[in-house]
Design a protein that fits this description.
alpha/beta, TIM Barrel, eight-stranded parallel barrel, two-stranded antiparallel ribbon
């Protein structure tokens, strides 16, 4: 049977992918004070978003932050997640994603179980192997090879699952050695909070397909063709195929998450495409079908997301804090469908 990618490359309609119902998240990073944060998380809940997440970044303004090109994030994630949970009732909360090298594994596992308990089972655990060598250096950490970081990621995830099981821990490996006590508290969500693993390459996405509950697809490069000759749309399809092949029959139970890099909801789509294309110094045509661009009136964006769920499997879309209100009409039309 031909893969979805081969069908797309031949210009034929792709066979429909049965995706899970849509849900949406906001990734937030900042608030001027406690009141602003409380009001914002309540607004996100009222607008119909499923989840509010933070990222795991720590660099304040300065040369290191500019060199790292990480978004400015003033709020540390664990405290902000706990506060968001305390001031909402249905909104899921989490981190997209915790970096394994920024936290002591045994401590992170207990924080995760505690956050799930105190949020009444509303935690989503995003966890990753780290990506910003500049941020590591600025924080005094060693940025290991991809193989080293991925191996540690696997051991940390195994520890989290064992901790949440509540039995006496005996997790030993090259990077994680935790023994001699039971994991507490017991999380509300069993056997553990949903785990999100993200990536762009075959190795990590295949692992995510086997082990995760939510698979996050990294941003596709903003080029007409990548080194393998694939368009951005074809690359997104290939990444979903990596996940599907590894997940097997459980693929229908996975949330496939992606975050648009550029969002503009409004009637003047041509102007928005032109502005972004000038900024990136590329043709607007590359942007029109790019899997990490959502531009146009709300109804048009709805149609785009429906189409992408069929081709890319994506049912879970995360937008930035600044787009929470403008994107809400799309959420109103698609959430739960």
């Amino acid at each position: 049977m031909a893969s979805i990618l081969s069908v797309v490359a031949q210009g034929q309609p792709a066979p429909p992918v049965r995706g899970k119902p849509f849900r949406f998240a906001v990734q937030a990073t900042n608030a001027a004070d406690a009141r602003e944060w409380r009001e914002f998380v309540r607004k996100v809940e009222q607008l119909g978003y499923s989840t509010l997440t933070l990222a795991d970044h720590y660099l304040g303004p300065g040369p290191a932050q500019r060199a790292a090109r990480t978004p400015r994030q003033d709020l540390a994630p664990i405290a902000a997640i706990a506060t968001a949970a305390a001031h909402t009732t249905t909104l899921r909360v989490g981190c997209r994603v915790f970096c394994i090298d920024y936290h002591v594994p045994a401590v992170l596992a207990k924080e995760i179980a505690t956050l799930d308990l105190l949020s009444d089972g509303r935690l989503e655990l995003g966890i990753g192997a780290g990506w910003s060598a500049t941020e590591y250096e600025a924080m005094g950490l060693t940025f290991g090879t991809p193989g080293h970081r991925i191996a540690k990621l696997k051991e940390v995830i195994a520890l989290v699952k064992a901790h949440c099981a509540g039995e006496e821990l005996d997790v030993t490996g090259e990077h994680v050695n935790v023994t001699g006590y039971a994991g507490t508290p017991h999380p509300v969500q069993r056997p553990h909070p949903p785990i999100m693993i993200g990536g762009g390459g075959k190795r990590v996405l295949s692992y995510a397909g086997r082990e995760a509950d939510i698979v996050s697809i990294n941003t596709v490069a903003f080029t007409a063709r990548n080194d393998d000759g694939l368009s951005p749309d074809e690359e997104a399809v290939r990444r979903f195929e990596y996940v599907s092949a590894a997940a097997g029959l459980r693929v229908g139970d996975l949330d496939i998450e992606s975050s648009p890099f550029f969002v503009s909801i409004g009637d003047d789509a041509d102007e928005a495409y032109r502005h972004i294309a000038e900024k990136l110094q590329m043709s607007p045509d590359v942007l029109r079908d790019h899997p990490n661009v959502l531009i146009g009136a709300a109804d048009a964006v709805v149609e785009t997301l429906l189409r992408r769920r069929e081709f890319h499997g994506v049912n879970y879309v995360t937008v930035r804090q600044s787009h929470a209100e403008s994107f809400a009409p799309v959420v109103a039309q698609l959430a739960g469908s």
